Amino acid sequence: MKSIIQISLDLTDINEAIDTARIALEAGVDYIVHHTGFDERVGVLAATGRRLSPLDDLKAVVEAVNIPVQAVGGLSIEEAVSTPQYGAPLVVIGAPLAIDSHAFSVASHDLRAVLGEIVRRIHP
């Protein structure tokens, strides 16, 4: 009998995301969370001027495993609703959608409206 508890591995700050995802699959993990963390995004932006996104290598992570993958980390609404096009069927709503994109604090916009917009676009 399969357990009702499922396990996800968060790939935040892991340089070898594809290899780590494969190891997680072999270990029996149920989901992969391909996560580009706030601190990582801010650090790369400050050091290089380049915007780091989990979409950069999402397709490669998805293709490396046969379990669901979700992307999270600084996604815009457009990017969040596009993750299924990369083969990642789980949409995570986080910064900057639920919090401010420049500071780890509550955003000034209407969270209910943002979530409603995303849900309408995912489940038309």
Q: What's the structural blueprint in terms of helices and strands?
A:
Layout: E1 8-10, H1 17-27, E2 31-35, H2 38-48, H3 58-64, E3 69-72, H4 77-82, E4 90-91, H5 111-122
Parallel strand pairs: 1-2, 2-3, 3-4
Q: What descriptive keywords fit this protein?
A:
single chain; alpha/beta; TIM Barrel; four-stranded parallel beta sheet; 4 strands
Write structural notes for this entry.
There is one protein chain. With 124 residues, the chain is α/β, with parallel strands linked by helices. Helix content is 38%, strand content 11%. Strand 3, helix 4 and strand 4 (90-91) form a beta-alpha-beta unit. The longest helix has 12 residues, at 111-122. The N and C termini lie far apart (35 Å). The mean pLDDT is 84.
Q: Going by CATH, what is the homologous superfamily? A: Aldolase class I
**Uncertain segments:** none
Rounded mean pLDDT is 84
Name the helix and strand elements from N-terminus to C-terminus, one letter apiece.
Answer: EHEHHEHEH
Let me know the largest β-sheet. 4 strands, parallel
Distance between the termini: 35 Å
Side-by-side strand order of the widest sheet? 1-2-3-4
DSSP E strands, number: 4
Structural class: alpha/beta
From the alpha-carbon coordinates, what is the Rg to the nearest angstrom? Answer: 15 Å
Helix content: 25-40%
Give the percentage of residues in beta strands.
Answer: 5-15%
Count of helical regions? 5
Brief overview, please?
This protein has five helices and four strands. The protein has helices at 17-27, 38-48, 58-64, 77-82, 111-122; strands at residues 8-10, 31-35, 69-72, 90-91.
